Structure formats: C-alpha cells, structure tokens
Request: fold
Amino acid sequence: MWKKQEVQKIVEHQAHRLGMRISRVCAWKTSALAYDGSGKVTRDPENHSLAVFRNGKQYNCDLSASYNIGARYYIRELLKPVPATERSVLEAKVPAVQRRTSCVYADLLKLREQMAEVV
Reply:
C-alpha cells in the first residue's frame, strides 16, 4: 500500500535537518483542473498519464498538478502580507483566488498582473 504519510514525514524531517522550511498546500483537484484555466481535464483513455484540456491540448497530468500546487502556495504567500482593503480589491478583480482549493496557475498569473497594476 502507498504510505504517503510516511513519505511526507521523512521528507519533512530531512528538510528540517537541512534548515529548510516546509509548507503544506491542499492538493485537492490539482490534477483534475487544467493549469491554463480552461477548466476540468479528461484523461486520455490510451495513456492515463496524459490530460486532455478542453481546448484539445494534451499535457502530463502530474506536471499540470505540480503547477497548480505551486500556484496555490504562491497565491497564499502573495496575499498574506496584503492589507484587507487591498486584498478585497484584488479578490474582486481575480475572484478565483478567494477559494484557494480551486486555484490554478492561470489565476496566479492574473493575480500577479493585478498586483503590478495596484503598485
């Protein structure tokens, strides 16, 4: 059986030994959502590791998921120091960042673009 908790504990321990900080991100639906913001993906019936986006593009499911996981982390870190008034303005311009469990890489790009305009 796959022991993901055990692997996470070992990696966390090694990171702390090397002086690295860790952060957990909700990985829910990261491989089911296209990183380019086109919506849900379907799996290629012949090669299950390929995701077929709505626009017809094929991409590796795991790579798309890793983009989305990274985006969720950076969205959280970008919004954390922003004051509540500015944050609500940014969330109004990019409504997808209000629920980080459905954020994708495309939302991170939109958020960075909006943050550059505000500054």
